[in-house]
Amino acid sequence: MAQLNSIVEYCNDLLRINEFSDYCPNGLQVEGGNEVKKLICGVTACQDLIEAAIEKQADMILVHHGYFWKNEDAVITGIKRKRIQCLLEHGISLLAYHLPLDAHPDLGNNMTLAQKLKLNVEGYALQGPAKGLLWNGALTSTINADELAAHIEKQLKRKPLHLPDASNKPIKTIGWCTGGAQHYIEEAAAMGLDAFISGEVSEQTFHLAKELDIHYFAAGHHATESYGVQALANNLSITFAIETEFVDIANPV
User: Fold this and answer.
1) I need a labelling partner for 184 at 20 to 30 A (CA). Which of 5, 39, 42, 175 fits?
2) What's the pLDDT tens digit per position in 201-213?
3) Can you tell me the distance from the alpha carbon of 93 to that of 68, in angstroms, rounded to the nearest whole number?
4) Quick one: pLDDT band at residue 164, thresholds 50, 70, 90?
C-alpha cells in the first residue's frame, strides 16, 4: 500500500513535468482515495478502461491519454461527465502523463518502442518543435521497406501503413516519434534518415515523404504508445510495492 500523494510526487519528479509545455495537464487529473493498493494502466482513459479498473477493484488508473485537453470544452457533460462520475463514485484516481512520458530516456514511449523494434538509439532532436521527441537510431543491417514493415508487424502485432511510392532506397537509419507525430517527417528528413516511423498518417504525409525521399511507416497511435505506461507502472510496482496490471483496450488506430 502507498500514499497517493507520494506516487504523484514521485512520478512528477521522475518525468520532469515542469520542463514541458503540453496540450493537457500532466500528473493527477482526478483525485480518488488517499491510499493505493492496486494500479491499472492503459493507453487512454476511456470508459472501457474505467470499467476494467472498477471490476478489478483498482485504486488508481495510469494512462498516457487523460482528460482536459487544450481547446476542448471545459464543461463536465456527456461522455466526460460519465467518465469522471465513475472515477469519483468508486474512489479511483486518474494519473496521466503525455509528452513527459513520450520523452523519458528510460521509461518513455520512444525508448520502449525502440526496445520493442530492436533499434539502436543514437540520439534525438536537440532543437525546434521536435526537441526531445523525435528520436533517431539504426538497424544492425540494411533492409528494404517490405522487410521493415514485416518486422514492425511482427513486433507490434499490427500491420503498418507504408507509403510505397515515396522512396526506393534501402533502410539503415530510422527516426521515430510515437503517436500522432507524422508532422515531424520534415525534421526526420533533414536529419538525413532513411525512414521515419510514427503512429498516424495525414493526407499531406504522402506528398512530403515522396518529395523528401524518405520512407514513412504509420504503425498505429495506440500500438506505438502501449509500452511507456507499462514501463512506468512496473517502476511504481517496485518502488512502492503496489500491484499493477496493464489492460489493453484494443484500438485499431
Assistant:
1) 42
2) 999 999 999 999 9
3) 15
4) confident
2 φ, ψ (degrees, to nearest 5):
-140, 160
The pLDDT value recorded for residue 187 is: 96
> What is Dmax (Cα atoms) for the chain?
56
pTM confidence score: 0.96
Selection from 60, 94, 36 nearest residue 240 by Cα: 36
Asked, colleague to colleague, whether 2-99+227-245 and 109-224 share their fold, the answer is yes
Residue 165 has pLDDT above 90, yes or no: no
Nearest by Cα to 67 from 57, 56, 55, 79: 79
Q: State which fold the 109-224 domain adopts.
A: 3.40.1390
For the chain, the structural domain boundaries read: 2-99+227-245, 109-224
Strands (E), the chain: 2-3, 27-30, 35-36, 38-44, 60-65, 93-96, 120-124, 135-143, 161-162, 171-176, 195-198, 215-218, 243-246
Instruction: State the CATH architecture for 2-99+227-245.
Output: 3-Layer(aba) Sandwich (3.40)
Q: How confident is the model at residue 128 (pLDDT cuts 50, 70, 90)?
A: confident
